[in-house]
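Team,

Forwarding the record for the chain on the shared tracking sheet. I've put the sequence and predicted structure together so nobody has to dig through attachments.
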Amino acid sequence: MEIKELKKSALLYKYFAESFYYPDENQISLIQDLSLNIDESSRILFEEEISNLQIEYSRLFVGPFKVAAPPYGSVYLEEGNKTYGDSTMNVISIYEEEKLQVDLKEPPDHIAIELEFISYLISKQIESLSEDNIKLANTYFTKQLQFLKRHLAKWVDEFCSKVESESKCNFYKELAQAVKTKVYNDLTNVYSIN
C-alpha cells in the first residue's frame, strides 16, 4: 500500500476513534476538523443537536441503567460479558510493548482506544517507510494484522450491530456501519496477503 493510502487509513481510524468519545463541543470540533481531511464519502454528518448526541451517547455506551451497546471488547470476548478480563489484560500488554501509557479514563479495550491504536500502528508503519526501514514497516504491518484479528475484528461486528439496531441517532448508526465496513474491508483486502 502506498504511503498516501496508509495516511488516509490512519486518519480514518483516528476519525472513527474520536467519534466514539463523549461528544462535547470540543470533541465535536475535533471530529469536524478531522473530517475535513478524509474522503467526503467517509464523513458522517452531525444532523442532531449536541445535547441529543450526548443523551444518545450516554444511553448507548455509559448507562446509568442498561448499556445498550457496551463499547468494551471484553464484554464481547469474555465469558459472562465482564470487563477487565483476560482479553483486556492482553490489550494492556500489547500497548505496553509499544511503550504506550495505559493509565486511561476508559478501560483499554474501549472501541475508541482500539481504533486509535490501529491508527497509531499505521502511523508507525508510515514513519518506518519514510525512513526506508522496510523491515520495521513490515513489523508494524504485522502488528496491525495481529491486533485486528486477535482483538478488534473479533468483537467489532457484534458491537456495531448493536449500535446500529439500538441507536435512535443517525450519526451513531452511520458511524457503526462505517467502522464495521472499514475493519472488514481492511481484513479482506489490505491484510489478506498474510
